[in-house]
Input
Amino acid sequence: MVKIFGVKNNNYRIETKQNEDMDLLRTLDAIFLKKRGYIVKLPPFGSSVATCMSGGGDSVANIFILLNGFHYQVYPFFINRGQSAYKWEKRAVEYYDKVFLKKFPNLYHKTLEIKINTPAREYKDDLREVKKSFRAIDPSSGQYLRHVDSDMRVNYYFQVSIILETLKGGMI
Output
């Protein structure tokens, strides 16, 4: 079991999560072990790492753990994909850049902004129309995925379908 920082009673076992497909996860683990000899391997203590910085709670917490827990040299990047919340996300990234540069001046490096047209501008208007009518349902629970942006839901289900088809021997 993975030890979670600062947690006295580690009750975060993946096996207890309602929406996890343990058979699929065991199959993927076996593939990783066979192909590369390990499932997950952290870089050595003090290594350089690149990570996404959105300015949100998950990426900020992740960066703090990388800096404080592993003493990694952290090179964050922020993806400007033309999102509607760009102004606020950028403001949050700039704020946390200052915080981390002050607290970890020898480990944290200023966030690099990467501009990517995703989805491609040619498709963006069409996708907005699709997004208005699309409601994703988690096939395992039947619950609406309201916490995930529609574009991400489409991408998620596309990736999951490719993985499942691959595991069944239907693709690749």
About this structure: The chain has five helices and three strands.
